[in-house]
Amino acid sequence: MALWIETKVKFHKIAENGISKQVTETYLVNALTFTEAEARITKEMEQYISGDFTVSAVSKTKIAELFKNPQGDRWYEVKVAFITIDEKTAVEKRSYSYILVQANDFDGAVASFKDGMKGSMADYEIASISETRILDIFDFAAETD
After folding, report:
1. CA–CA separation, 52 vs 74, rounded Å?
2. How far apart are CA 3 and CA 106, in angstroms?
3. Residue 117 in contact with residue 97, Cβ under 8 Å?
4. Which of 34, 55, 99, 133 could be joined to 26 by an S-S link, Cβ 3.0–4.6 Å?
5. Banded model confidence at residue 14, pLDDT cuts 50, 70, 90
6. Which of 142, 61, 140, 141 minimizes the C-alpha distance to 100?
7. d(CA 56, CA 95)
């Protein structure tokens, strides 16, 4: 199971009008520790950011799974309730999970989520869907020598 860690990177960005503005961007990294996440995001950002930048925050997320869609340009967090029946009391129980879905818009996020859940035998309800500030995701990739 992947451990997804949210990182925030602060740097100066040149706007279209030529003015330098300090921005903070959010990225998700698959890592085992905060230290590894910070090192990986630093390595990734060195390729894209010229000049100084800092990793201003590193925090653990509750993301259980990702449903990627290469055509999507935004990330949506889906809070899903998986429904089970207690065999002794016959009462419905809900356990919540968070799934990140890549899509262009809200309707696309719902469709991508449902597509990702195809073939699942679990009963579920979508509790909420919200757009995140995550710009990109850096999954684990084994380093080659």
Report:
1. 26
2. 25
3. no
4. 133
5. confident
6. 61
7. 32
The structure's pTM equals 0.87
pLDDT in tens, 48-60: 888 899 999 999 9
Which candidate, 138, 141, 131, places its Cα nearest to that of 6?
138
Give the mean pLDDT of the chain. Answer: 91
pLDDT of residue 143: 54
What is the chain written as a DSSP string? Answer: ---EEEEEEEEEEE-TTS-EEEEEEEEEEE-SSHHHHHHHHHHHHHTT--S-EEEEEEEE--EEEEE--TT--EEEEEEEEEEEE-TTT--EEEEEEEEEEEESSHHHHHHHHHHHTTT--SEEEEEEEEE--EEEEE-------
| Phi, psi (degrees; rounded to nearest 5) at 42 | -60, -45
